[in-house]
Design brief:
441 residues, alpha/beta, Rossmann fold, 4-stranded parallel beta sheet
Length: 441
């Protein structure tokens, strides 16, 4: 097979290109964000059917590392990495759940939830982190001096980074906003041996510090400003099409905080179309919490301007971000895909999460933001009843049991508790148990 190649490129100037083997996060000449660009002509020298057959033949097979949902698409992701340096935990290949019962309640029966939380560390962040940590191993193998890998995080990124670094034998450093992540999210990097710094700030403050730290100390930056992460995350798009036998959904809805995810989603579909595996693009929706909604506010102004906000506390704490680093990429993708940005209040996201859980899922509050956005767009008749819709569930609900328990115990202020389900205390008596059950059945 041909030697496929990729490189870094300024997102606003295709003439500014840089070797993929360098350590770069922004364009050294302009400071703009970078993206990984592939030699599409080389990839197109093979037919669309060739790529479909190759991806399908690898999918979920035990031929390491190609059974991974990410590494099965290696030629489209990071072809320069040698297999010996790949750090994989069989990420991807997550359940595309037909939400038939919930869809019927809303009036859209062709509704699917992509359960990205059914992954090694419980979130879609694994898709990008397997690529980034593998790249670090390759860079070190190439002679680069990298002492550690670091990230700012609201929880899920730190879990993925620490796990993959532990598997690779690399040092990880995590910057978390103090008292703003769940216990389940905090314990993951601790258990994986990361150096965890609890900063008295929010995510945006942690992000500023980690970027400064990484500039001066041979510490590699793992946040989604690093475009290598996007290469792994874009495989969600490829996998979705693969699971639908290469058909395209009409709509895909994804929650957005730092906005690397919406950027990656769009990039995957653009690559599929350019190489010829699909012939149309879906419409994309980015869903934000009302308490952290800078992209939504920009959308209301047709993206003519963007101003960061000070993010307020939200149950969807992983997207509690007011100054997203991938804003330029996100706006560019949304314009290309005729995209929409919708927001959800705290009551809306909590109620939507609980409502869909009653049909058999167990979703994170960030997925609740996307579900609430879906319901709003159906009510506005923007999403039609006969259209195929995919909601991206970004993390497993078990990482957010505190918010779920507080919802069902009705401990959350300003939340309507419409779907709360309190445990029923009953004396140790058969007759009293039966009396309760008779009222429930």
């Amino acid at each position: 097979m041909d030697n496929f190649s990729c490189w870094y490129q300024n997102i606003n100037d295709e003439n500014k290109k840089y070797p993929i083997e360098e350590i770069l996060y922004r364009c050294p000449e302009t400071g703009n964000l970078l993206e990984v660009v592939h030699d599409i002509d080389a990839l197109k020298s093979y037919s669309p059917e060739y790529w479909k057959d190759k991806f399908d033949s690898r999918y979920r097979k035990q031929s390491w590392p190609y059974g991974s949902g990410v590494w099965g698409k290696k030629e489209w992701v990071v072809p320069f990495i040698e297999d010996k340096n790949i750090v994989s935990m069989y990420e991807g290949g997550t359940n595309l759940f037909w939400a038939e019962r919930y869809g019927k309640q809303i009036g859209v029966e062709d509704l699917w939830i992509k359960m990205c939380g059914n992954s090694h560390t419980g979130s879609f962040k694994d898709l990008g982190m397997t690529v980034l940590v593998s790249c670090v191993k390759q860079l070190i193998d190439n002679g680069k001096d990298i002492k550690a890998v670091a990230c700012a995080s609201t929880g899920d990124t730190s879990a993925a980074l620490s796990a993959y670094c532990a598997a690779a034998g690399l040092k990880s450093i995590v910057f978390l906003p103090k008292n703003k992540v769940s216990v389940a999210q905090l314990v993951q990097p601790l258990a994986n041996g990361a150096t965890v710094l609890s900063i008295d700030s929010d995510f945006d403050g942690c992000m500023k510090i980690v970027q400064e730290v990484c500039k001066k100390n041979n510490i590699y930056l793992a946040n989604s400003i690093n475009s290598l992460r996007i290469e792994g995350q874009k495989t969600i798009s490829i996998e979705l099409c693969q699971q639908f036998n290469w058909e395209i959904p009409d709509w895909i809805i994804i929650p957005g905080g730092n906005l690397g995810n919406i950027s990656a989603l769009g990039k995957g579909f653009l690559m599929l179309k350019e190489i010829g595996l699909i012939n149309k693009l879906p419409r994309l929706v980015c869903a934000q919490a009302e308490n952290a909604n800078p992209l939504y506010l920009s959308f209301l102004k047709d993206f003519n301007s963007f101003e960061p906000v000070v993010a307020k506390t939200t149950l969807a704490n992983a997207i509690q971000i007011g100054d997203p680093v991938s804003i330029e990429k996100a706006i560019k993708i949304l314009k290309t895909f005729d995209g929409i940005v919708e927001q959800s209040s705290e009551d809306e996201l909590a109620s939507s999460t609980a409502k869909v859980d009653l049909t058999g899922t167990f979703n994170c509050p960030h997925t609740g933001v996307a579900i609430s956005a879906f319901e709003k767009l159906v009510k506005k008749n923007i999403i039609k009843s006969d259209e195929k819709v995919v909601i991206i569930s970004t993390a497993h609900g078990l990482k957010f049991v505190d918010s779920k328990i507080n919802y069902h115990m009705e401990n959350l202020k300003g939340i309507s508790n419409t779907f709360s389900n309190l445990p029923i205390e009953v004396d140790n008596s058969f007759d009293k148990v039966m009396k309760v059950l008779e009222s429930e059945l």
